[in-house]
Design a protein that fits this description.
By secondary structure, the protein is of the alpha/beta class. Helix content is 53%, strand content 8%. Helix 1 (51-67) crosses helix 4 (146-157). It is elongated and about 100 Å long. The two termini are 44 Å apart. The model is unreliable at 1-15 and 74-79 (pLDDT under 50).
């Protein structure tokens, strides 16, 4: 079977940019009743992955997860834990946790189909940029387990050149990448994969997640929407009732074979239509850029700075935040006193006419650097004192276990979280 690739639209290809774009998704309306008793029949050009390969991948992933079990956390531990960005990800844990709780597809244990009445519960497809089905996985689980999508990607890479980079759009692409980084799935290919979220699902994710995974905000995806699977599911929706009982896999293979030939026959017209659409979009974007009065270099730098600022880990409502802030301020004050002593020592050496020439030269060289560090440190101390509401003469040791201060820091963290969420909502509306 032919695998057709499509480069990103109007994107200057750089290192790790995807030469090809794929879309994957599951459909739980394509089921098969347990009462069906058809004789097995296999299409000579079947696109279905072997059942033995899917089972082997599931066992392999279970072994990887068992080898590195996540620590069990209580509610108190979760509240006290600092938000951070793990591994090679670009989105903090708080955002990924929020996205995970907001979509049913991210929960492998969430039942979407009854295994009591259906032995085949769903289909998962992998399509190229032209909506041609490359591979299908026949699902038997009640939920959308990750070993199906991992198997599809693994199988695809076995048919590709060693230096080929892929862009993969999936409804829960951020969660799949998180699992790959956390457990080591697809570790041989991760430097050649760029994950994204299909465009109609991307708007349901947190703003920070959209900044990284939205296909229209991530360079390399062009105008791809990642919804080819939805179009394929719609094209075979008329077969839902029939395939509950009769020759399900063989009929789907025939349908895929027919759809592939039909798409390839009209591929020239499709390329012309999409190219004209891309050029129209490109011209409109150039007019907007010319009318804004700023250079593209400046706009890209500002966008990069915005992404960094809006994907930073958020402060948590920790009971120890007040104590940690006081201890940090104490350390800063001690460092400030040390720097003041060094400045006095250098000034004394410079003022002493009997100082050795080498000590005098070192003092003249170091004193300005120490003074700059001292001024920067004073600025940090003033900011932290303003947050705590204390002055220079306040005895910080008396505030370490202050209950009001602990509540004050939790309130500030909650205020910043609410303010950031409101700001992100405004960005989404814009």
């Amino acid at each position: 079977q032919a695998i057709i690739f499509a480069p990103g639209v109007l994107c200057a290809l750089e290192v790790n940019f995807p030469e090809s774009q794929m879309a994957t998704n599951a459909c739980f309306t394509q089921k098969r009743n347990r009462q069906a008793q058809d004789l097995p029949r296999t299409h000579p050009r079947t696109v279905f992955l072997p059942e033995q390969g899917l089972d082997a991948m599931e066992k392999y992933m279970d072994v990887l997860r068992a080898h590195k079990p996540p620590p069990k956390k209580t509610k108190t531990m979760q509240d006290d834990e600092e938000d951070r960005i793990e591994g090679g990800l670009r989105v903090p844990n708080s955002v990924l946790d929020g996205c995970e709780s907001g979509f049913t597809a991210t929960d492998e244990r969430r039942a979407k189909a009854s295994t009591q009445f259906f032995d085949n519960t769903a289909l998962m497809a992998l399509l190229c940029r032209h909506d041609i089905v490359l591979f299908l996985a026949n699902m038997h689980s009640a939920g959308e387990k990750q070993h199906y999508v991992i198997s599809l990607i693994e199988t695809l890479f076995q048919h590709l050149p060693l230096k080929c980079h892929l862009g993969i759009l999936y409804d829960i692409g951020c969660q799949v990448e998180r699992s790959c980084v956390k457990w080591g799935f697809l570790d041989r290919y991760m430097d050649r994969i760029l994950f994204g979220i299909s465009v109609f699902h991307a708007f349901g994710y947190r703003w920070a997640c959209q900044l990284i995974y939205h296909p229209q905000k991530r360079r390399g995806f062009g105008l791809s929407d990642g919804e080819g699977c939805e179009r394929f599911w719609h094209s075979i929706s008329k077969l839902i009732a029939y395939l509950r009982y009769h020759q399900r896999l063989y009929t789907l293979d025939r349908q895929v074979d027919y759809a592939r030939d039909e798409i390839i026959e009209g591929l020239g017209a499709w390329l012309l239509r999409r190219s004209q659409h891309a050029l129209k979009k490109h011209k409109a974007a150039e007019l907007i850029l010319q009318g804004c009065g700023h250079q593209e270099v400046l706009l890209r730098a500002q966008w990069d700075a915005q992404v960094v600022a809006q994907t930073k880990p958020l402060p948590r409502q920790s009971k120890k935040a007040g104590k940690d802030m006081v201890n940090e301020l104490i350390r800063l004050r001690e460092t400030q006193n040390d720097l003041k002593k060094r400045v006095k020592e250098y000034d004394a050496i410079i003022a002493d006419v009997d100082s050795p020439s080498d000590e005098y030269a070192d003092a003249r060289t170091e004193v300005e650097s120490v003074r700059r560090k001292l001024e920067e440190l004073r600025t940090r101390i003033r900011r932290k004192q303003a947050v705590l509401g204390v002055g220079d003469r306040t005895r910080l040791t008396n505030l370490i276990n202050n209950p009001f201060l602990a509540l004050w820091m939790q309130t500030l963290a909650l205020k910043q979280q609410l303010r950031d969420r409101l700001r992100f909502c405004k960005f989404e509306l814009d």
